[in-house]
Amino acid sequence: QVQLVESGGGLAQPGGSLRLSCAASGTIFGINDMAWYRQAPGKERDLVARHTRDGSTNYADSVKGRFTISRDNGKNTVSLQMNTLKPEDTAVYYCFAIVVVRQTSDYRHLEVWGQGTLVTVSS
Q1: Tally: H helices and E strands in the chain
Q2: H/E element, 122
């Protein structure tokens, strides 16, 4: 069983910073993409940032220049540094990963979600 556990959410003032972290655990052969999504009340879950295994990154236009995604392949972790936070960044943030697991003589790619962590930006 593979799990993603997030940490680092909370309350921040506009213009402030928060750092989210996510660690994958379980019997993992490898991890392809790791990403952060967010879902604001009454809205769909949207991609915030993605980090591929080979180091490529992409960001939602709304967070470019403010958020930075990073990962440690050796530790199976991904982080999201969020600077210059705005009230519209308020949402539940979810860690996501495509995890490769070995099953007998085959490999499977699993899409795994974390439980979510709440980020509130308010004065």
Answers
A1: 0, 11
A2: none
DSSP 106: E
As a whole number of Å, the end-to-end CA separation of the chain is 40
Structure tokens at 10: 């909370």
Decide: 110 and 13 in contact? Cβ < 8 Å. no
Return the structure tokens found at 20. 């989210």
Q: Of all helices (H) and strands (E), which one includes residue 11?
A: strand 10-12
pLDDT for 33-87, tens place per residue? 999 999 999 999 999 999 999 999 999 999 999 999 999 999 999 999 999 999 9
What is the distance between the alpha carbons of residues 72 and 103, in angstroms, rounded to a whole number?
Answer: 25
Alpha helices in 1-123 (DSSP H): none
DSSP 73: T
